[in-house]
Amino acid sequence: MKYVLITGGVVSGLGKGVTASSIGVGLQACGLRVTSIKIDPYLNTDAGTMSPFEHGEVFVLDDGGEVDLDLGNYERFLDVTLTKDNNVTTGKIYQSVLDKERKGDYLGKTVQVVPHITDAIKDRIEAVALIPVDGKEGPADVCVIELGGTVGDIESMPFIEALRQLSFSVGKDNFCLIHVSLIPVLGVVGEQKTKPTQHSVRELRALGLTPHLLACRSAQPLLDNTKMKLSQFCHVEAANILNIHDVPNIWHIPLLLRNQNAHHSILKQLNLLSIATPPDLEAWSRRAETFDNLTDSVRIAMVGKYVGLTDSYLSVVKALLHACIACSLKPSIDWIAASDLEDDPAQSAPEAYAAAWKSLRNAECVLVPGGFGDRGVSGMVLAAKYARENNVPYLGICLGMQISVIEYARSGSRTHMGSTMRLGSRRTLFQTPDCVTSKLYCNPYYVDERHRHRYEVNPDVIGVLEEAGLKFVGKDETGKRMEVLELPSHPFYVGVQFHPEFKSRPGKPSALFLGLILAARGKLEAYLTRHQNGS
Prior knowledge:
By secondary structure, the protein is of the alpha/beta class. Helices cover 39% and strands 21% of the residues. Belongs to the CTP synthase family.
């Protein structure tokens, strides 16, 4: 197994996840099979209990793993299906070591960070790297590892030591370290400053790891003299100093790296030049250019709880982007805090109330995404009501589906609490091949999508709701859980218990997001007719 390790320095939030994903894309384009591991040094065992305000969205995998949003980036960029084991956390490592200690597996020895924790980290990395994630048999050629946080953080020290040991044990031809760092520009002087990166690399080298490549984040392209200083003082060849400057959209990053021959430097370090092919990134080039040249936009009202941090709905935003580009449109998202639509702000915050309703009324379609807790539910119900009564295309996801049921029932919540979360990929059976959802999925029988919910629609009220006109066109394999609802009298009014955004990919948009955007432009009927005729 060949390993590419991505570390970060100076500040957090530099885009290590996108860099790691883009490097994976470049290696895939050279004909190699790639897998990914994200190391999160926090003590949580997984991201399931984390607040979206603090950590962004919780990404859900096929196997039910609740993981860091960077794994969503890996899946979208590399078009792979990862497992919960691909997200390694301090919590998981310590839990496994303590479980072994309680069972007596260490034969009475003193259990310590070195060697027991570091050995557990190495063993976990080497085992997870062998798991196939691309639908083919056997392990991948290269495993890209992203170490979360910033070099020097106390919590990441055991991982740094374990990775130092791993680099030594696998040999220099099987390990490539890329350090992502910031090159700031001071406003007064206007000069690109290399000192923070120098210090970051010095700290990394003091811990026993020497970077083979530097990936430098900056607002503008790096100047030649900046590169020379970095090369001289960071002990990295000038050809191996990559510049990831700001670009119009992140699909340019794999192309930016390709244009700087990043793939060649990595393949050379890993002794893979003899088996790799020249990188084929035609599809990425087309995609990035198409996005840059779009002029027409579609207005989407996103009515949610966590609109203060857009990363809370990262996969939904990406799924909207994929669907819009498939329709040659740019997404123009109006973020509406659900609570601003409610009656209370009309008196306490009239400006926010007026702005929220203006955004909703100006939207061409409405999307209510998932969420937990009862804050903002009344506002979401009002948004669903507005969309239903005014024939505005509506897509409700998870909580958004339950909101549409509550609104239609007119008599409060008709849901009940399950004892545990329902997670991962589950099958939904369509009750009729004539429903819009089955036509969009191009499958009259079923669809497999990922779930993350605790509430469900009470089956006792289904009959009453269906008599009133709401149709539950998708159910689980027991027939008791409602998975998809539609309002046949409406241009597009769909609620789904699952999360279709998690499986959306560039060039392969989620069927339901595509349906929403097509409906917003009045093109859904023509699209469905075309596809039914096999064209």
